[in-house]
Amino acid sequence: MTSTEQTAVPETGSRDPRRSRWPAVTAVALGTFLLVTAEQLPIGLLTTVGSSLSVSEGTAGLMVTVPSLVAAVAAPLVPALVGALDRRLLLLGLMGVMTLANVVSALAPDFAVLVASRVLVGVAVGGFWAVAGGLAVRLVAPADVPRATAVIFGGVGAANVFGVPLGTLLGGFTGWRVAFATLSALALLVLLALLAVLPPLAASQAVRPRLLAAQLRNRGVRVGILATFLIVTGHFSAYTFVSPALQELSGIDERLVGPLLFGFGLAGMVGNFAAGAALARAPHRTVLAIAVVLAAAMPLYPLLGRGPVGGAVLLVVWGLAFGGVSVGLQTWMIRTAPHAVEAASSLWVAVFNLSIGLGALTGGVIVDSLALQGVLWLGGACALAAALAVWSARAEETLR
After folding, report:
1. Neighbour tally for 265: CB within 10 Å
2. Does residue 399 come out as left (phi exceeding 0), alpha (psi in the -120 to 50 range) or beta?
3. 231 Cβ partners below 8 Å, 6+ apart?
4. CA 181/CA 35 separation, integer angstroms
């Protein structure tokens, strides 16, 4: 980031920052909670769904891959297609799509219909996240932007703490269809909350291809996108198959997977808010630290996680570090492109979700054809490469 771009500022047309709308920030956080829960819930249900619909674990991983790839396309495409549409109406419509998608998932008669419903999930995730990621600068005073961004992305940590683990437990006790039906009901409640507290959000500028391309000429944006691609691809190549890893590598009983994922998510939530506090003081060092810890935690798992205790401890460390990824990299994008937050966020969300899909797909190939340990080594290597990219940004004074 250049010295003239260190402080994120509201986009043109944003509301008076002195009249901050924290209830709206909270409602958007609930939206990210549902989005991430819906996108990642199948991670904890791969074995159950695969057995029910007669597909392998690798094939069942398509439930994560498909919405992620669709979200990667939807992130820049949805804001571009809707033009100057009030972002409040856009977010409400996308949450309605999420509600419908999970109804179809719950009623799916076969795996093909289930995957088709996940396409709708991808549209909702990509469009909602592209807009929500940059809303903090429009809802709160500039000094509160890092904290508000942490709250919005606290929904990611909350999804890992409550959504995915509890959904996994619910699916284990009552069936995976009930888990998806419950998601649909919760999505409807979030839609009503957004309707009640979200203010009108007129588009400050249309997200056109030319504006998106302009962001790629910004060194800080390019580094943020590269770091996102590497970290998220590596993480999801491994985390998509964390349930079999816990069982096969650490000898942990299947019934304990849900509680351990709860611990992972709780650590992630702590990491999210810890990173949010640190980012206000040292954004570069915070993102670098996150990448370094991930580069160590994942490859150490096959070495030190060969028992229940070691596996659980490394899982918590892994969750603590990854919890800061979303708020860390979103803050990076806001700081490097303060006058084109929605455009930069659209690119970032596209790459983030593309990386989720590629990570899950790559992990599925490795698990089915090579070895389960391979995805953990890949995750560590990707995080190490991201750490080097972030370090180089400091060396070139891209981010101060």
Report:
1. 24
2. beta
3. 290, 291, 294, 325, 329, 355, 382, 383, 386
4. 14
In the numeric block, which tokens belong to residue 92? 């409400």
Instruction: For residue 7, give the nearest of 141, 177, 111, 172 by alpha carbon.
Output: 141
Mean pLDDT score of the chain, rounded to an integer? Answer: 82
pLDDT at 215: 77
Residues in the chain: 400
**Which residue type occupies 150?**
A
Higher confidence at residue 366 or residue 51? 366
Q: How confident is residue 15, by pLDDT bands cut at 50, 70 and 90?
A: very low
Residue whose entry in the numeric block shows the structure tokens 């419908």? 100
In degrees rounded to 5, what are phi and psi of residue 221? -65, -45
Sorted by sequence, the CB contacts under 8 Å of residue 272 that are 6+ apart come out as: 150, 153, 154, 156, 157, 323, 324, 326, 327
Domains of the chain: 21-395 (1.20.1250.20)
Average pLDDT over residues 292-301: 90
Backbone angles phi and psi of 30, in degrees to 5: -60, -35
Token pair belonging to 284: 């570069």
* pLDDT beyond 50 at 11: no
Question: pLDDT: is 117 or 53 the higher one?
Answer: 117
CA dist., res. 111 & res. 104, Å (int): 12
Q: What is the pLDDT of residue 257?
A: 79
